[in-house]
């Protein structure tokens, strides 16, 4: 006799493929019940739905949105008819219906409406459309000519029913444009969850990031990201792809700030192993977030942090290509136009300003490292996006109704605020009238110095961030004066010993400030930033001056400063893989030998770096033929090519830095080509401590 099952038993039968969505995402076993026992135990009973139920639910929501859009269109049509017949109606109530979002960026755009500005912008100002659930900025003759044809209610975006989570590549990682930039870091089929640190490590890395990295970058709103970190601790499987990418980038940035000993002590692994793992995890997360097609702010924040973390591990050209990609993505989101930010909430607009300024700064410095003119890589001052304001994160919240007001005292943003203030002054110098006299430029510098000093005077030097900001500000003013004097002397062909002596003194002051920052124990947490500073311009000028005046009264002080610098930054002169570093080391030996020949008036102590450089440059018959020097002791270009050290993009940089000159000729200090990546907009140069650069 056949056995028949009751209706209850049939309903509770477990079949393959009927796991609920929550269990599928968490990768746990599901008993097939509704709600299942796993969801009941974890308190997710109300969220326990099968795939078919979720699909039908999404379809109902989509249909409801379409009906709402039809109603909105009809209302707007009726309003236009009333207006056409001269019948006025109150504008106090908005005619558009603003939807409610579900994420931290909801204040920017409604899911069903592109908010019109109070007055239509001109055709050349561009405008914002909505694409895949996020804003996209368009600005060219084609888009502007079709502006009136675009659906204001984002009709097509609603109909397609797709978001960036479903558009992103699957877990197996099919071949995508992203993979051309970021090769797959893990074998196909590897779960992204395998690279997630343990819960104690997540909390530790987050705190390290807040202490060491965040104060100098301030890329996001820390309390908001704190919620994502908490969610990762509770249930990492519930995070979206963009959130996973952001967390992995944060972990990588935190590890970058640690030394090898600190990594072993705090994370129980070597720095090399940790950086390799987190770099691979971040790349994988960015690829899965479909970052090249994304206009999501969180994804772009993750990419920006990743680029900051790899600048010491990536060659100059690759870094420049990647920062250029980030800049294009930011422009696609409209971050480069203040007009587009007016459509966002005050909270969202401020975060986008922070993101834009950091991306442009990174792109500019990467371009300068490979020899690209600043005219071809404009800085943030050439756009109308406002500077981020000087406020604490506690002053910024999603529900704020008024734009944040900048504080007149040091806040968590003090380092970035002073850096941007200096940059704005530099922009006035470089982009101002070409007939600005030297006196006028010095007057602008004095005005900038007053503003900076007003902020620095309120800093508490017992606070590491305030100490670094103070040293950076003082160094920046010295760099301002140095570059302004250098530019003025070059334009007037002033090769006098007095001018050269002033430049020499200013260069030593800048190097002294940097040595002070490098030697301060409280600033050790920020050494990752200072490792990106390459003071080649000041270093080379001091060495050239010592070659010209080996017996001068300033020789002992100069070598004391240089030795302190080399003690903390030996990579400036002993890295044989970097052309500037290798050639600088040769110039150090040349200046040292010259001063030793005239050492009757001074007692010079040979430092360890000098000893290592002599061993490194010592001829050994058994080794591969070393680099060749010309009669003036300058490394030849053929030697760079033979050693695999030569970069064609650095030809002008190298020629300006290491051309042979007579002892009394100071024209090399006033040449048109700058030495080192110090130029931001034109001849008025200033990066140094302001913006870290790829090593």
UniProtKB/TrEMBL annotation:
SUPFAM superfamilies xref list: Zn2/Cys6 DNA-binding domain
GO annotation, biological process: DNA-templated transcription
InterPro entries listed in its UniProt record: Sec_Metabolite_Reg (IPR050613), XnlR_reg_dom (IPR007219), Zn2-C6_fun-type_DNA-bd_sf (IPR036864), Zn2Cys6_DnaBD (IPR001138)
Record has Metal-binding as a keyword: yes
Locations listed in the record: Nucleus
Residue ranges constituting the Zn(2)-C6 fungal-type domain according to the UniProt record: 19-48
GO molecular function, one term: DNA-binding transcription factor activity, RNA polymerase II-specific
An example Gene Ontology CC term for this record: nucleus
Keyword Metal-binding (UniProt): yes
Annotated protein name in UniProt: C6 transcription factor domain-containing protein
């Amino acid at each position: 006799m056949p056995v028949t099952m009751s209706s209850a038993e049939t309903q509770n039968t477990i079949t393959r493929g009927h796991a609920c969505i929550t269990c599928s995402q968490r990768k746990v076993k599901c008993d097939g019940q509704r709600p299942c026992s796993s969801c009941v135990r974890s308190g997710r009973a109300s969220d326990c739905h099968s795939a078919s139920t979720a699909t039908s639910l999404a379809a109902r929501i989509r249909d409801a949105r379409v009906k709402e859009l039809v109603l909105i269109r009809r209302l707007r049509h009726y309003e236009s008819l009333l207006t056409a017949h001269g019948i006025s109606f109150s504008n106090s109530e908005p005619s558009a219906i603003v939807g409610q979002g579900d994420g931290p960026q909801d204040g920017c755009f409604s899911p069903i409406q592109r908010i019109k500005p109070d007055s239509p912008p001109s055709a050349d100002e561009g405008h914002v459309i909505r694409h895949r659930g996020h804003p996209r900025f368009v600005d060219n003759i084609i888009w502007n000519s079709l502006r009136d044809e675009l659906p204001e209610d984002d009709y097509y975006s609603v109909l397609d029913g797709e978001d960036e989570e479903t558009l992103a590549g699957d877990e197996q990682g099919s071949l995508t444009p992203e993979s051309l930039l970021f090769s797959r870091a893990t074998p196909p089929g590897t779960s992204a969850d395998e690279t997630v640190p343990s819960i104690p490590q997540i909390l530790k890395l987050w705190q390290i990031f807040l202490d060491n990295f965040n104060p100098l970058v301030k890329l996001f709103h820390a309390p908001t990201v704190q919620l994502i970190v908490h969610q990762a601790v509770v249930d990492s499987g519930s995070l979206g792809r963009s959130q996973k990418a952001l967390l992995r980038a944060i972990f990588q940035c935190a590890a970058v700030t640690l030394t090898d000993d600190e990594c072993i002590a705090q994370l129980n692994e070597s720095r090399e192993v940790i950086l390799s793992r987190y770099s691979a995890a971040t790349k994988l997360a960015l690829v899965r977030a479909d970052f090249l097609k994304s206009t999501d702010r969180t994804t772009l924040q993750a990419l920006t942090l990743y680029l900051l973390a790899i600048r010491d591990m990536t060659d100059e050209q690759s870094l420049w290509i990647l920062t250029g990609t980030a800049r294009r993505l930011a422009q696609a989101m409209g971050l480069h136009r203040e007009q587009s930010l007016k459509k966002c909430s005050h909270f969202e607009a401020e975060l986008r300003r922070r993101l834009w300024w950091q991306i442009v700064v990174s792109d500019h410095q990467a371009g300068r490292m490979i020899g690209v003119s600043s005219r071809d890589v404009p800085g943030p001052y050439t756009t109308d996006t406002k500077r981020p304001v000087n406020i604490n994160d506690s002053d910024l919240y999603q529900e704020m109704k008024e734009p944040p007001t900048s504080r007149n005292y040091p806040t968590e943003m003090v380092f970035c605020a002073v850096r941007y203030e200096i940059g704005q002054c530099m922009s006035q110098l470089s982009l101002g009238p070409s007939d600005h006299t030297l006196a006028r430029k010095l007057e602008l510098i004095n005005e900038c110095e007053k503003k900076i000093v007003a902020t620095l005077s309120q800093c508490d030097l017992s606070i590491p961030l305030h100490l670094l900001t103070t040293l950076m500000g003082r160094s920046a003013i010295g760099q301002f004066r140095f570059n302004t004097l250098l530019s003025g002397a070059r334009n007037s062909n002033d090769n006098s010993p007095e001018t050269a002596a002033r430049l020499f003194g200013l260069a030593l002051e800048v190097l002294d400030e940097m040595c002070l920052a490098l030697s301060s124990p409280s600033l050790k947490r920020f050494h990752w930033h200072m490792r990106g500073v390459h003071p080649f311009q000041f270093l080379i000028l001091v060495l050239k001056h010592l070659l010209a005046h080996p017996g001068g009264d300033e020789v002992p002080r100069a070598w004391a400063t240089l030795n302190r610098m080399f003690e903390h930054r030996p990579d400036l002169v002993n890295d044989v893989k970097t052309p500037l570093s290798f050639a600088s080391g040769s110039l150090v030996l040349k200046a040292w030998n010259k001063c030793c020949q005239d050492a009757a008036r001074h007692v010079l102590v040979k430092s360890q770096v000098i000893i290592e450089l002599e061993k490194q440059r010592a001829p050994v018959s058994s080794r591969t033929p070393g680099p060749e020097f010309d009669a003036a002791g300058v490394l030849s270009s053929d030697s760079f090519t033979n050693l695999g050290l030569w970069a064609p993009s650095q030809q002008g940089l190298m020629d300006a830095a290491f051309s042979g000159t007579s002892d009394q000729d100071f024209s090399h200090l006033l040449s048109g080509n700058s030495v080192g990546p110090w130029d931001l907009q034109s001849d008025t140069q200033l990066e140094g401590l302001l913006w870290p650069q790829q090593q």
